[in-house]
Amino acid sequence: MTVEDDSSADVELSTPKLVFDETDILYEEDCLRNQYSVKAWLRYIDHIKEGPNEKINLVYERALRELPGSYKLWFSYLKLRRKQIRSKCIIDSAYEEVNNTFERSLVFMHKMPRIWLDYCQLLMDQGKITRTRRVFDRAIRALPVTQHTRIWPLYIKFVTTYPEIPDTAMRVYKRYLKLQPECVEEYINYLREIGKLDECAKLFVDMLNRDNFVSRQGKSNHQ
């Protein structure tokens, strides 16, 4: 049995046709009968997990057309797509295909911090500084404030990794401190590292003058 290549923009395939064998028929029929069953699609995917990437990806894409709101399917699919490109050169076009798959997922999964984090990490791995910052900002805007603490640690790690963008890092840190003011010592340490000593001293004095300040690093107001 063959499945012709789907010309839709939603499906990313590198071969014109894929071959499905007779053992797939039962799973195909199951999914046709239970097209809105996540379990049915996952059973099919588990059955073909040792097959070619294009075949597995196609079944995932079919499942997600029927169940676009399934976090379980999206999370599993995105994890697989990242695994598939792990051994490829960072500038391989396959990376951009996976980036685009993340973008499609966020149409439905924009309230899921795990998806945002995985996408941001993928962009960080590619060294896409501006794009990564914009995706982090989109995550902050999309998620409720109660979930921002999931995003900020990786965001801070990202902006402080690049010495060439200190102004960006400072702006991001200041936004972070509005939510987590107790982390001011980390910011002071960062300012010291990048040579922003005036700003560092100003914050240090302000920190010492706070009667209710409790050091996260175990220091007293006089240390």
UniProtKB/TrEMBL annotation:
UniProt key word Nucleus: yes
InterPro entries in the record: HAT, HAT_Syf1-like_N, Syf1-like, TPR-like_helical_dom_sf
Domain of life: Eukaryota
The family this protein is said to belong to: Belongs to the crooked-neck family.
Pre-mRNA-splicing factor Syf1-like N-terminal HAT-repeats domain segment(s): 24-182
Residue ranges crossing the lipid bilayer per the database entry: none
Major localisation: nucleus
Organism: Rotaria socialis
Protein's UniProt name: Pre-mRNA-splicing factor Syf1-like N-terminal HAT-repeats domain-containing protein
Nucleus among keywords: yes
Keyword annotations from UniProtKB, A to Z: mRNA processing, mRNA splicing, Nucleus, Repeat, Spliceosome
One Pfam family it belongs to: HAT_Syf1_CNRKL1_N
GO cellular component terms, semicolon-separated: post-mRNA release spliceosomal complex; Prp19 complex; U2-type catalytic step 2 spliceosome
An annotated GO BP: generation of catalytic spliceosome for first transesterification step
Subcellular location: Nucleus
